[in-house]
Amino acid sequence: MEAWRIEITLGFVLVYMIFCILVGLWAMRRTQSSADFFVAGRGLGPMVVALAVFSSTLSGFGFVGGPGLVYSSGMSSMWMVVVAGFGYAIGFYLVAKRIRMFAGVYDALSLPDVVAARYSSEWARGLTAVTILLGVMGYLATQILAMALVLQSILSATETFADISLVTCVFWSLAVLIFYSVTGGIVASVYTDVVQGSIMAVAGVLILFTASSVMDGGLSQATAVIMADDAEAAMPFGTLGMVTAIGWGFVFGVGLAGQPHLVTKMMMNRNIADNRIVYPVSLLGYVMAALLWFSVGIIMRATVLDGSVDPLVTADSAAPLFLASFAHPILAGIVFAALFAAIMSTSDAFLNIGTAAVVHDLPVAIRGRSIDNELFWARVATFVITIVAAGFALYSYYGNDRLVALLGAFGWGTFAAAIVPVVVLGLNWKRASAKAAVVAIVSSLLINFGIELLSIRLPYGISGPFLAIVSSMTLFIVVSLLGKKPKLAPEVERIMSI
Q1: Which of 192, 197, 339, 383 has the least C-beta neighbours within 10 A?
Q2: Do 468 and 417 contact (CB within 8 A), yes or no?
Q3: Hey, CA dihedral for 364, 370, 375, 379, is it positive or negative?
Q4: Element (H, E) at 484
Q5: In this predicted model, what pLDDT tens digit does every residue of 167-178 receive, in sequence order?
Q6: What is the mean pLDDT of residues 358-384?
Q7: Domains contained in the chain, number
Q8: Looking at residue 350, what is its pLDDT?
Q9: Per-residue b or e along 293-318, where b marks 16 or more CB atoms closer than 10 Å to that residue's CB
Q10: What is the CATH number of the domain that holds 399?
């Protein structure tokens, strides 16, 4: 069977691509309105929502970028993962119930709709939409780049496509992604999440066992090899240091509840009471799938150090090379297919919220009403945003040499810094004002993008997203306290009193 490894892997990936096309066609028949396209008609069951939430959290960021970070910087990125339980708790206890109530009462199709209703402010709606659009560019670029890198690693192992370029792989990946996203919208995304989320969770456990069997002493021996080479890499803060690691923990823990692609899915369940099922299932699935993040990264770093594997050309190839070298062919094929599934459905989720910002939220904020034929223009905008994000991904890879995980961290940080104060605090604090929401969003964007575009290196390893989220939360609280207590609409008052 080993002799057919590449054929088996390609077979699984091809079957998955066909599956995506079929799901897109099926979902297109169920997508009759913009409400169907953006929030699946708010009629999903708890298991569908649970699997959609957790699988969107990992995707290409966790399956490709995570192992790459462990390979390049040791255990620093552990702090991105272990805080997930805290982040999910914030999301489901402080956001899920109220955002679903806002969605029902105000017939909201997007997170900016909810923000506008909460603050009675079109400025807050528009700025939230701009934030989502900007963050989508970074995070969607992560997914496209991860998908192309994985496809390149598979095809380059064959004689026919040995010299295939990353640009070509981006093109073929986009062809399927665009068809899948344009036809099916969020309906296609959440229902493929059921399949791929289940596979990701099981695959994470199986990969852990596989990684443990690579060296005679398992992961303990691998850790000892890493420690002998660089003790700091095997320590809890890794090679990037305590400040950076803890900063990541804060951004990814608190910031999880501010990720619009996750929060939006909390608006899609049929019943608010379903959150009692959605929360534990989401968290369990995440923990199981995240086992791949560390086990693969540790083993690849250790096997390179002991000479059994050649040094990697790029850290992002850690997971694909592990699957090609150590996993059973069938397991490798399944995980590769699951990886494509994770990336594809998450990309669709990002495209969905980015498209909503362009065709729904910004027109309402600027003109006071939505555009005509929203469903048609949503599909057009989906195509355009995908092409722009692909260009950004290629520029970041070739022109800026960004790892998938670091590109994803920037997108995550953009969302977290702007949305956590406005949504997590704002939906639970009646004193929060529209002016505070505007100040928080603007300050977060200026800090995050200013540091990124000007390549500013902060002292002590402080990251841009960490500074942005701390600053925006502080300003949100201060401006709210200094201003007059806002008069809430009766519906908002009732929702926030429950």
Answers
A1: 383
A2: yes
A3: negative
A4: none
A5: 888 888 888 778
A6: 85
A7: 1
A8: 79
A9: bbbbbbbbbbbbbeeebeebeebbbb
A10: 1.20.1730.10
